[in-house]
Amino acid sequence: MGIDPAMQFQGQRSISVQAQSGLVQHDSHGAVIQYGYGYAGKRVRFSGWLRSSDVTGWAGAFIHVAPSGAERFFGSRRPDLKEDDLPFGAGGAVSVDRWTEVSLVVDVPNTPTAMVSMGAMVVGEGKVWLSAMRFEEVGLDVPLTTARIGMPLPTPEQRAAEAKRLAEKASRRIPPNLSLE
Prior knowledge:
The chain is mainly β. It has a single domain (2-171), classed as Jelly Rolls. The chain is 9% helix and 44% strand. It is built from one helix and nine strands, in the order βββββββββα. The strands form two sheets. The protein has a five-stranded antiparallel beta sheet, with no helix packed on it. The chain has a four-stranded antiparallel beta sheet with strand order 3-8-5-6, with no helix packed on it. A hairpin with a 2-residue loop joins strand 1 and strand 2 (12-19). It starts with a strand and ends in a 10-residue tail after the last helix. The mean pLDDT is 84.
């Protein structure tokens, strides 16, 4: 992930995220993320121009808000991950072979430590580019984004298995520093 000077939109460089084929699982994800603070109680828009290739899961732009300034989404193996935890997204499960404009609009909670995170993400395999990005306050007349990123959520069985695994791991924990060093 990083800046890809070879892939430009109207003369502007792009950021990119790429998952290496064969090295990731279907729910693996990678992202380039920018955080924003100071927008409590505001409606904001993150927009840009998107392109993707070789997508097997989901690739696109995302935006996420957290009322307490703590990001809880990133961790697809969280046993308690649910759809409401997923960021809003513009992109999809298929490759977009031409530059396409995307726009994501959210309301930031009116809490002193509210945080916004935004960027480009790949779930599974593929590559995404994002260029000519903008972040701005918008009026309440601008409709909110309702689509979430595409990511497999854990089944109840997977949640139970992960909880059991964590409990077993915790029960076998060796106390630290027994050598008193």
